[in-house]
Amino acid sequence: MDQHVSVTSLLIVVTMAFLTPILLYRIKLNAIPVVVAEIIVGLIIGKSGFNIVHEDMWLSTLSTLGFIFLMFLSGLEIDFTAFSRSKRRETLPNGKKEPNSFVVSSVIFMGIFVLSLILSYIFVKTGFIENVFLMTLIISTISLGVVVPTLKEAHLMKTVIGQIILLIAVIADLATMILLAIFVSLNDSGSSNTWLLLILFAAGVVLYFVGKRLKNRSFIKTLSTGTVQIGTRAVFTLIIVLVGLSETIGAENILGAFLAGVLVSLLSPNQELVHKLDSFGYGFLIPIFFVMVGVDLDIWSMFSDKKLLLLIPFLLIGLLLSKLIPVYLLKLWYDTKTVIASSFLLTSTLSLVIAAATIGERIGVITEQMKGTLILVAVITSIFTPIVFKKLFPREEITNKKIPIAILGANQITLPISRELKSGLYEPILYHTQIKKDEKQIANSLFDIEEIPDYSLETIEKTRVFDSEIVVLSTGDQELNASLAIKAKEKGVPRVIARIESPEFEQNLKEHDVEVFSSFMSTKVLLRAMIESPHVINILTNQETALYEIVLKNEAFDGMSLRRFPFTGDVIFVRIFRGKDSIVPHGDTELQLHDRLIVTGSKEYVDELKNELEFSEASKRFY
């Protein structure tokens, strides 16, 4: 009978986790993070609602694994290239010089932590909570799981303000997780000495160097495909080893999982592996954990305690003040709306608050009701802060926004291409090693060429190459092209195109999501197409009838049918690619975000349409 109840509860939880994102999509509540919606669903089916789910061995095990994997992905989300990225400080639209992202972010976080400590003393003095350290961690933490998707959706990850917001969240995530581990070792009577944490971090350092040494070995690449998938196996082994080591030395298992995520992030995994891990975590284990968080919350017991009820608005105000006052430093460079909007987004808390509250309740520092109150406040912040951020963040209309393209290597292919691209929506910059004086005068009169001493990584990092939307590598050295292409992807460049003539490099680059072209293959394919399909080639090469690809990123057109499409002009929708599906467009076909639209028409009108569809309302800000 117990086994039957166990499977029934698991069935309900998994089914609700499956239906939640579908319901959010159907009722168009995209502003609410899915994980928050899963907690709300848990409230409905758990102790606060119909009470039809009861925790047992199945759910307890899967929920714990979900929590561990969530902490692993939190560590994996940390982009350490943000700390080392050397970018030229340019002039903002208001005429002021860009701030140093890392310095400003560090100062702001220190301000957040100090203010959180002061607010925690106030909460202790007023009798709301007894432990200053725990409350300081809860107030100062910031949810990367809310900040990162919100910045990506707003297309702000590449902007200076986006980098500052991201860095503040990253520093807060790292600092609060380490301090949480120290807090547990100091307060848990069953824990070992704090210095034993050094063993865990030492093991992490050793595993990092082992992973770095093995990562590019040929046999590892061979075993990474088919049924072996050695990379995925290595990640799960790393998680289990560090989680086991954490528990052995008396630390929390989530610290080991978080450290595993940090190590994998430092090793710069390819995007395919990250996608697999995200799919497994957010597709199965993590939804179960968040639903169970809601199931275990008893809101009615909180409401029966007037002190806990009063704590909710006071804590929300405290969370906002702890971010608003330090972030106001950004007023030196940005307008008031930008500063306030950034403060609201940084107020979001979720994963680490749940971790801190759960651990605090387990070791007897706070009550179960207090744990529920803290989690409820975290859920509330995760609901309203992204919405307020989107409403408040200033929207500046863009005029002829150009997509930056960096082209390395000036030759007979790249020179004419850069000139043709410049007449459209693109802003190409050619980087080339020093050329002769007589050639320089001719080249600079026709093309924008930025001379660099060499193509070494150190030289490239001093330019704006890795800050471009598209990087094209067409130097005469294909090994150099391959190595720089991989480095560009690791630096977060969205599209990287490399000129590779030998097939031996091609497969490895494709695994890193690098696009490859070669003179020989291009010529062969073109000649065959001219023989077999001459009219198709005419469509592709004729400026007036060419095919163009437009990616729909403007939220205003999401769900709009082509019949209601407001733009009329010399353009025809030929095909719509949605994921792996190819759709023949009709009047009733509804557009969806991230659709790839294949259109044909006059270049001027296509450029205008591309400018409107490829930049969301949120992205019309700092360009």
Automatic annotation (TrEMBL):
Keywords: Antiport, Ion transport, Membrane, Transmembrane, Transmembrane helix, Transport
Topology versus the membrane: Multi-pass membrane protein
Family, as annotated: Belongs to the monovalent cation:proton antiporter 2 (CPA2) transporter (TC 2.A.37) family.
Keyword match Glycoprotein: no
Domain of life: Bacteria
Protein name: Monovalent cation:proton antiporter family protein
Native species: Neobacillus sedimentimangrovi
Gene3D superfamilies according to UniProt: 1.20.1530.20, NAD(P)-binding Rossmann-like Domain (3.40.50.720), Regulator of K+ conductance, C-terminal domain (3.30.70.1450)
Record field: transmembrane: 6-25, 32-52, 58-80, 101-122, 128-148, 160-186, 192-211, 249-268, 280-303, 309-330, 339-360, 372-393
PANTHER family, sorted: NA(+)_H(+) ANTIPORTER YJBQ-RELATED (PTHR43562:SF1), NAPA-TYPE SODIUM/HYDROGEN ANTIPORTER (PTHR43562)
Domain RCK C-terminal per the UniProt entry, residue ranges: 534-615
Cell location: Membrane
InterPro entries: Cation/H_exchanger_TM, Na+/solute_symporter_sf, NAD(P)-bd_dom_sf, RCK_C, RCK_C_sf, RCK_N
